[in-house]
Every structure is written in C-alpha cells, then in structure tokens.
Specification:
The complex is a heterodimer of chains A (311) and B (522). Chain A is of the alpha/beta class. Chain A has 11 helices and 14 strands. Chain A has 2 domains: 206 residues, P-loop containing nucleotide triphosphate hydrolases (Rossmann fold, 3-Layer(aba) Sandwich); 75 residues, 2-Layer Sandwich (Alpha-Beta Plaits). In chain A, the strands form 3 sheets. Chain A has a 6-stranded mixed β-sheet with strand order 6-7-8-3-9-10, with helices on both faces. A 4-stranded antiparallel β-sheet of chain A has the order 2-1-4-5, covered by helices on one side. Classes of the chains: A alpha/beta (311), B mainly alpha (522). Chains A and B meet through α2, α3, α4 and α6 of A and α1, α2, α3, α6 and α14 of B.
Chain lengths: 311, 522
C-alpha cells in the first residue's frame, strides 16, 4: 500500500548551510508522527518542502504517491499545512475568515457554508463566530489556524510547532483535537519542542539532527532501542546500604544511586534477568517494596539519540 | 476529494443551515480576494471615513456652485474642475495606497503562502486586488457623480468630456493601483522595503499633485474639447488606454514574479510580454498613425522595441543558468514543443536566445515595412540611418548582455546573485561611458568622440547612426563584426540551454512511460 507520506533522500542547502541531508522516512494513514530535533535541525525546511513551499536540491517527497516536486497542485489539495506563525486578517470575524479560505479552496454554495460551520464547530469556534479574528486568544487563534487547515479535508496535516506558546489547558484541548483527527483517519506530521506532549499524541517519531535522520520508528520500537541500558528503580523498607552493596555485586548493574530508601541503577539485563535479580534480592533478605523499570519517554529518546549539535 | 463533513467527526450545528441566499450564490462566482477585501473595507474605519469625506467635499462644492448662480456656464466648468480635482486624489492616491497596504498585509509573515496552498494563484490574488480597487473607483465616482451631473446641467461641460475624463480616470486608477501592488509585492525582499514605500508614496503623490494642479487650474476642461474635435484624439486616447494597459500588465507581471518562489517559472510571462509588444507597437502605428507620418513613427516604434529588448535583456541574461527542479519537471513532453518553448523558459542561456530571436524579429519586420515608407520621400537617407541604428543597438545589446552574462556566471548561483548582477551591469555601462569622458577632460582638456568612447553606446550611436557627416566608413563593418562575434560567442551556451530543455522533455517522457508501465502492472 502506498504510504501517505514518503520522504525520499531529501537534501536542501542554503548557501553553505546544509539544512537537510539525505533524509528519508515514511508514514501511513491515521498515523501521528512526531518530528523532533534541536533548533536548526531542518524540521521546518523539511515540512515546507513537503508542503510544496520549497524545493529540495536532491530527492523528493510523495504525498499519497504524488511527487511534491512534480505535482505541487495535486499535493496541495491533499495536505493541510499549519505554519508556526499565524496572522489573521484585520476587520474579519472568525466565520468570515474561514469563509474566505473556504472560497479560496474552491468550496461553493451550501457545501461551503456547511463545511465552514462544521469545521468551526469541530474546533470549538462557533461560540466565537462573530468575534474579530485578530481579537482571539493565542489558544483560540491556533484553533482558528487549525480550522482553516481542515477546510478542504486534507489527507495529511503538517503542523509546525502548533502548541508553541499555548497555556497548559489550551495544549490539552489542542491535543484532544489532534487525537480526534487521527481517529478520523488523517495522517499528522507534527513538530514540537514539548516532547512530553508529542509522547502522548504520537504513534511514531522521526528524530533529526543537523538535517539528517538520527532515528525513526514507532515510540515502542524506540523505547526498545534505548532500553539496552535501562534505569531500574528499587525501593526497600529499610537498610538501603545493604541493598546498595547487594546491587554492586550483581552482574550487568552499574551507576547505583541511593536517595533515602530508593535506589536507582542502570541495568543491561532483559526481562528474564531482571526477574532473577528481584528473586535474588528477596533471597538476600532485602525488604523490597517497589521494583520497576523506568520507561524511556520521548525526552529520554531524544536526549539519547541526539547530541544537541546545531547547524 | 471529500469535504470536511466527510471525515471530521464533528458535532452537528445546533440549527439546520438555510438555503444559501442570492448574495452567497452570486458571490461564489467572483474572486475570493474581492469578496474579502469588500468585507474588510465595510468593517474598516478608513474606507468609510474616506467615502464620507468625499461626499462632504462634493456637497460643499455643490452648495458653493448653487450659491453662485450668476456665474452661469463658467460655474458649471468650475464645478466640473472642482469635482474632478476631488476625484483625482481618491482614484490616484487613496485607492492605490489602500491596495498597497492590503498587499503589504498579505505578505506579512507568509500569509500569502497560505493562500498559495489553497486554489488561489498569484494571478488571482493580484486580479482580486485590482478588482477591489475598481469597485472602490466606482464608489468614488458615484459619490462625485451628482456634482459632475450638475456641471453638465449648468452647461459647463458636455457629455463626451465627462465620459472621456472618467475613462482616463479609470485607466490611471488601474495603472496606479497595479503599480502600487507591484511596489508592495517587491517589498517581500527586506532590502526593497524602504525603496518600495518611498517609491510608491513619491510616484503616486507627485502624479496626484501634478494632475490636481492641472485639473484645478481649469486648463484641462479648456483644452479637452478642442482635443476631442481634433484628429489627434484617436492617437492620444489609444496611447493613454494602450499605455495604461501595458503598464498594468507589466506591473502585474512584476508583482507576480515577486510573489512566486524562485523555483517557479518567473521568466516566461516577461518574455511573452516582450514579444507581444512587437505587434502592439507596430499595430498601433499601423492603425492610429496616418500613413503620411509613418516615416517617423515606424523608426520610433522600432527604437522603442529595441530599448525594450535591452531592458528586458538585462533581466533575462542575469538569471540563474539551469532550470529549477520544478520547471525542469514541467517542460513540454513533445520534443518539438519543448524546442519551441525553450527560448521562453527561464535561464540566462535561453534568455540570450530569446533576445536574439526578438531582435531578429523586430529587424525583419522593420526591414519589411520600411521600403513602403521610404520611397514616399525622395532623396531621403533616413532608411539607411535606421538600419544603422538597428545594427548598432543590436550589436551593443549583444556585447553588453554577453558581458552581463559572464559577470553573472562569476556571482553566487542565488537570487541575490541575479539582483547584484543587474546592478553591476548598469554600473558597468555607466563606467564605460563616464571613464573615457573623465580621462579626456583631465588629459586633453576637451571631450571629443574617438575610439576610446566606442563602448559608450549612446554617443557612438548618435554619432555613427544619425550624423552622416561624422560617420566613419569603418563603423558599420566594425558594428557588424561585433554583432556576429558576440552572437557566435554565445552559440555554445545557447545550444546548452536548448539541450537542457530537450533533456528535461525526454526525462518527462520517460517518467510518464514509467508511470504508465507501473499502473498497467498494478
């Protein structure tokens, strides 16, 4: 089956700066893919190329099998691009703003009116319908921006830092909207600096640094890949020193830290070996209250896979 | 493609939607930009205030005229002058500046890119803005129309004067608005912002003040009736309307080229415009200029076309060399069509081919027409002078634009490189003209033409094309040799330009064949 988005050996440079180099990844329908990387890593450049607003020096990207390079017009009808900045027109209210873009997308008559109201309703904008588009809060402005992006029912949404500058409530509401869109079958490529947000929204992630792909795949696969040396938490009822001495004698255990009765250590063991370690700890007379592997979240993955180098 | 209703799992609106009204259905047929601009204007304070100010001025003038009944016919003419003097700033400054502001707003923080992602093309955006300006024009004219009607009823002016004045006001308004939109679009480059602001304000301001002064002095309403009755009216009217149309087209093309990304095809429009000017210039001469005046009009039209070619040539020969990936992918599939389209496609090598074709066409048409013009004037040497003019202009154009191309090749392959090369070409011409003059002035104490001034196109052409007694017998062979040498030097590059286009065409055919095979196997 044709992937919804396939980025193939994409390269783009601006003068001497290589913004994107040989970047490849793919995503399918209904999938939410986080696009992660340090500032200047080439995220926006890649997204702009996929949105047909820039062209690569080499390589190509395909949206539902259509080349962004060769068929930009077809591509544009299949994507919704939400740039990181939003500036609504003055002297237009919310519905007029959406109505204008609906006309620009070629919707007409009853269909246009219906689509505008549906999209406004979906994004929770109907109660602000008569408000000036320039007078909305940042959170509502982002909703209006998203609503505009949805008017022509794109297959793929490209969202560049959509949660930037939003307060926690607005972020949560925005995340809910994205989940509903993904559930409706849209592919979403989203970049953000708030990795905890992405972790809760995304099925997969592409990490890039200095324009090149560092790692890509589902979040579960990534957790597995960074699990080679995972952090384990052990809490005992008493005698943390004995527990520390015990751990230091165990194979594959390193970097034991003690904080009261809680010990943390790195372990290269798999699930079976961890079970054995727990049995040995209990057998050694340690009063174990809690023994758990700390799951790597997106921030861990990001920190472990990137080196924080900028262009 | 399904619409939003198909996919978005949205709650239903509280009330069922009514059938779209007449306005909604009708507005679906017009440009979305026009609809939006009108909605914004009706909600904005500036537009409403300006309309009311125009209305107030109109009422005040009408009251003054009504209070001065003794003046009779003169009062009617004064009312017309006052009405027109009020209308001119509205249509020549207020409307274009509003279009300018609107365009600047569009360019702020990439809003215009959001429009490109929709179905709107740069052309639709520009036309929408132009149409919005026309609606405003109609509104201002309707505000002033009672005053114009009063001036007619007082026998101050006749209907043709009013109609011609309004047609000219419309043409000037369209041209000024297109110029303002173009200036605003150029401000997309940060370096151009100050020039664009200043240029738009100065040009529109000076133009408005001059016209207001001319109309307000009463000279306009006195002179126009005599022009209307003269044979020159057709020439003047066609020049104003044709000039306005060409200026508008050029402004819109310029604006479009700034709105389009550097990887889109920004050249073909200009090249087609340049070729279109050949039938326009010669056609206008044929239709509007009496045959008895062709002896001067045909060479003038030819000289105008040569100058146009040189100016466009500077831009064409300082572009990037290769086709951008997107243009490369859209070259005509048919090899023959691709070869025909090649001179019109972007790239400086193809630009040079385009320029040579253009000069060849202009020269050919001029040479075909002149024999029918020259025999009417026995003993006339004008024809030979004009042949020399064409030869010299073409030779200088090819030599300088060849140098411009070489200069461009040494600059970075970016858009900024194009702009730098264009400025440097003008500096180069200026330097070649000024330096020998300065050397003469400081070393010999006087400035005469000699071969050291050969790179000064203006002086050399003036001396060797027009002034028969000063002509050197070697001048024509030298110019001919320079022309042939410059063209021959460009041949390999021009060939390379053609080959690139044919290669792109072939790649497109292969790609299409590959897609067909893939779909068949699927």
């Amino acid at each position: 089956m044709t992937p919804l988005l396939e980025v193939r050996d994409l390269s783009r440079s601006y003068g001497k700066v290589q913004a994107v180099r040989d970047l490849s990844f793919a995503m399918s329908r209904g999938q939410v893919t986080g696009f992660v990387g340090p500032n200047g890593a080439g995220k926006t450049t890649t997204m702009r190329i996929v949105a047909t607003l820039d062209v690569p020096d080499r390589g190509d990207a395909f949206v539902d099998g259509t080349s962004v390079l060769i068929e930009p017009r077809i591509t544009r009808s299949r994507i919704g691009y939400m740039a990181d900045q939003f500036h609504p027109y003055p002297n237009l209210d919310v519905l007029q703003y959406l109505d204008f873009f609906a006309r620009a997308y070629g919707l007409a008559g009853r269909k246009r009116l219906q689509t505008v109201r549906l999209v406004a309703s979906f994004c929770g904008l109907l109660e602000f319908a008569d408000r000036p588009a320039t007078g909305l809060s940042k959170g509502m402005g982002q909703r209006l921006h998203l609503a505009k992006t949805l008017l022509h029912d794109p297959l793929l949404l490209i969202l560049d830092e959509p949660a930037s500058g939003l307060d926690p409530r607005a972020r949560i509401e925005f995340r809910v909207l994205l989940k509903e869109l993904a559930a409706a079958g849209k592919g979403i490529l989203i970049s953000s600096h708030i990795l905890s947000e992405l972790g809760e929204t995304c099925d997969s992630v592409v990490v890039i640094e200095k324009g090149a792909r560092v790692v890509a795949g589902s979040i579960a696969e990534m957790q597995q890949s960074v699990r080679h040396e995972q952090e384990v938490l052990l809490r005992v009822l008493r005698d943390a020193e004995a527990a520390e001495r015990f751990l230091l004698t165990q194979p594959g255990v390193s970097q034991v830290t003690v904080d009261g009765t809680t010990l943390r250590f790195l372990c290269t063991a798999d699930d079976q070996a961890l079970g054995d370690l727990l049995s040995r700890a209990i057998g050694a007379g340690l009063s174990v209250v809690e023994f758990a592997r700390t799951e790597a979240d997106l921030e861990d993955i990001f920190l472990k896979t990137t080196k924080g180098r900028l262009q | 493609m399904s619409t939003g209703e198909a996919v978005i799992a949205a709650p239903a609106p509280e009330a069922p939607l009514e059938e779209p009204g007449f306005w909604t259905r009708w507005s679906d047929r017009i440009n979305p930009i026009l609809v939006r601009e009108m909605q914004q204007a009706m909600k904005g304070r500036a537009f409403v205030l300006t309309v009311f100010a125009a209305l107030a001025v109109s009422i005040v003038i009408a009251a003054i005229v009504a209070g001065n009944r003794e003046a009779g016919r003169r009062a009617g003419a004064d009312a017309f002058d006052a009405g027109l003097a009020t209308l001119v700033p509205m249509v020549l400054f207020v409307v274009p500046m509003q279009a300018y502001q609107s365009m600047r707003l569009e360019l702020r923080a990439g809003i215009v890119e959001q429009l490109f992602l929709s179905g709107l093309r740069p052309r639709s955006i520009l036309l929408g803005k132009l149409m919005a300006a026309m609606v405003q024009f109609a509104l201002y004219v309707s505000v002033m129309s009672p005053l114009l009607a009063t001036s007619y009823l007082l026998r101050g002016v006749d209907v043709p004067t009013i109609v011609v004045s309004l047609v000219w006001a419309l043409v000037f308004c369209i041209a000024a608005t297109a110029f303002a939109i173009s200036a605003a679009a150029q401000a997309i480059l940060p370096a151009m912002q100050a020039f664009a602001n200043l240029g738009a304000a100065l040009v529109l301001g000076i133009g408005t003040f001059s016209l207001v002064a001319f109309v307000g002095s009463g000279e306009y309403s006195r002179e126009l009736p005599s022009l209307l009755n003269s044979t020159a009216f057709g020439i003047v009217m066609s020049l104003v309307v044709g000039g306005g149309f060409c200026s508008t087209a050029l402004s819109l093309l310029t604006a479009q080229s700034f709105l389009l990304h550097s990887f889109e095809n920004r050249s073909t429009g200009f090249r087609v415009f340049m070729f279109a000017m050949i039938p326009v210039a010669y056609g206008w001469t044929w239709i509007f200029v009496p045959a008895t005046h062709w002896y001067g009009a045909v060479p003038a039209a030819t000289f105008f076309l040569c100058l146009l070619g040189v100016v466009f040539g500077i831009f064409m020969t300082t572009e990037q060399r290769a086709l951008s990936p997107r243009v490369f992918a859209h070259v005509p599939r048919h090899a023959g069509l691709a070869a025909i389209a090649a001179p019109l496609l972007p790239g400086r090598d193809r630009g040079m081919s385009c320029l040579i074709l253009y000069f060849a066409l202009v020269g050919l048409l001029a040479l075909c027409w002149w024999p029918s013009v020259a025999p009417a004037f026995p003993g006339w040497t004008y024809r030979e002078d004009m042949l020399r003019l064409l030869l010299f202009t073409a030779a200088y154009a090819l030599v300088y634009l060849g140098l411009a191309k070489a200069l461009r090749a040494r600059l970075p392959a970016s858009i900024a490189g194009n702009h730098v090369a264009r400025v440097l070409v003008v500096v180069m011409v200026f330097g070649f003209c000024l330096l020998p003059v300065l050397i003469d002035a400081f070393t010999r104490g006087r400035v005469d033409w000699h071969w050291g001034h050969a790179m000064n196109p203006f002086w050399t052409i003036e001396r060797h094309a027009f002034r028969t007694r000063d002509q050197s017998p070697n001048a024509v062979p030298i110019a001919l040799t320079a022309l042939c040498a410059a063209a021959a030097l460009q041949l390999p590059a021009m060939l390379r330009g053609f080959v690139e286009v044919l290669g792109a065409s072939s790649a497109r055919r292969r790609r299409q064949a590959g897609t067909a095979v893939q779909s068949a196997s699927t």
